[in-house]
Design a protein that fits this description.
The structure is a single chain. The protein has about 350 residues and is an alpha/beta fold. It folds into three domains: about 10-90, OB fold (Dihydrolipoamide Acetyltransferase, E2P) (Beta Barrel); about 95-250, P-loop containing nucleotide triphosphate hydrolases (Rossmann fold, 3-Layer(aba) Sandwich), CATH 3.40.50; about 270-335, Ribonucleotide Reductase Protein R1, domain 1 (Orthogonal Bundle), CATH 1.10.40.50. It contains ten helices and 13 strands. It has helices at about 10-15, 25-30, 125-140, 155-165, 185-190, 205-215, 265-270, 270-280, 295-300, 305-350, and strands spanning about 40-45, 50-55, 55-60, 70-75, 80-90, 95-100, 105-110, 115-120, 140-150, 170-175, 195-200, 240, 250. Strands 10-9-8-11-13-12 form a six-stranded mixed beta sheet, sandwiched between helices. A five-stranded mixed β-barrel has the order 1-2-3-5-4. A hairpin with a 6-residue loop joins strand 6 and strand 7 (about 105-110). Helix 3 (about 125-140) crosses helix 7 (about 265-270).
């Protein structure tokens, strides 16, 4: 804390610990220039403003550009209701996708330790989960696959075994928020003070899982339909909540699509088994397409590598290559524009010094 902040270190530490305050955040906050501000964490983002949890409680804060849910900020408190965001602290992880409506990054959540990939056991879509694992690893956080609605399948352990076999190296937890099965296992991965985002499709049971962890119906969920016993999706905005047993959850709306913003690191981490096989390819830059001596294609042909997993890898590999090329092109355009602005400013400066 700065010497002219509103509250002493001890009180800030005590009040923000449930929201993820630790030595890491304290160090980042100490790097902010001294001023009349306190630390806070963004718990919800509205249009043109955000709700921030700070030592004095929650404040509606104005910020331009708006931060993301999970961001830590330096907050200037104006009164018992309003505040201004003066700085956004450096992020250690960013969960994002390409905005489906434009060629920009859409940040879903920031400063995560975990991404809980929520998928219903009765509608197991492993190809989608592989994409979500890529995005989660790319964020800088660690993914954990959470199978919900275990009570809706005849053999839950068989479903988990299927997921483990396909998602090589992934952690998979089987749960049923309705019966309480597996909830303690999820709670343990959040302790002692980890921040996690819930990622998954609409109706996967993210809010039901969150409510089971919170021990109350803090987040809205849809009524269960009589015909298939599935809850309707109701989450419409991202919000951060503290879990009583320890840890922080960010509930997110179901995403119809998950276009990649970046992906080199995430692809390698999500498909480590494929990357290991690739070490035996004849060519170091093998794309596992038509090159001779491809160990990955050979493994898929013989059944050593699941063919559906290989197909998923190849599709995501192409999308990652496209996303990385697009990122490089944007970077080049930004650099060209920067030099144009510098040249223009220099010309204007020289012109201003000439006698008329």
């Amino acid at each position: 804390m700065t010497s002219d902040s509103h509250l002493p270190d001890s009180l800030v530490h005590h009040s923000l610990v449930p929201y993820g305050w630790d030595q890491r955040v304290s160090t980042l906050y100490a790097a902010v220039p001294a001023g009349d501000h306190v630390p806070g964490r963004v718990v919800r983002v509205e249009r043109g403003a955000c709700l921030v949890q700070c030592p004095a409680g929650t404040r509606l804060a104005i910020a331009d550009p708006p931060p993301a849910v999970g961001d830590w900020v330096a907050l200037r408190v104006l009164d018992d209701r309003d505040a201004l965001v003066e700085a956004v602290l450096e992020r250690w992880s960013v969960l994002s996708r390409q905005d489906p409506a434009r060629e920009t990054e859409q940040v879903l959540a920031a400063n995560l330790d975990l991404v809980l990939i929520v998928t219903p056991a009765d509608r197991l879509h492993l190809t989608r989960v592989e994409r979500e694992l890529l995005v989660a690893w790319e964020s800088g956080a660690v993914p954990v696959v959470v199978l919900t609605k275990a009570d809706l399948v005849d053999d839950p352990e068989a479903v988990r075994a299927e997921a483990l076999q396909r998602l090589v190296g992934a952690d998979v937890i089987l749960t049923s928020p309705r019966t309480g099965a597996g909830i303690d296992d999820v709670a343990r991965v959040l302790q002692p003070n980890r921040s996690a985002a819930l990622l998954g499709p609409s109706g996967a049971g993210k809010s039901s899982l969150a409510n089971a962890l919170l021990g109350e119906d803090a987040l809205a969920i849809g009524d269960v339909r009589d015909n298939d016993r599935r809850g309707r999706h109701t989450t419409t905005t991202r919000q951060l909540v503290a879990v009583p047993s320890g840890g922080v959850l960010i509930d997110t709306p179901g995403l119809r699509s998950l276009p990649l913003w970046r992906g080199d690191h995430g692809l390698a981490a999500a498909f480590r088994d494929v990357e290991e096989l690739a070490e035996a390819c004849r060519f170091g830059d093998c794309q596992h397409d038509r090159e001779p001596g491809c160990a990955v294609k050979e493994a898929a042909a013989t059944g050593t590598l699941d063919r559906q997993r290989f197909s998923s890898y190849r599709k995501l590999q192409g999308e990652v290559a496209f996303a990385e090329r697009a990122h490089d092109a944007r970077a080049r355009r930004a650099e060209e524009q920067r030099w144009k602005n510098i040249t223009k400013a220099q010309r204007q400066g020289r012109g201003a010094g000439r006698p008329r």
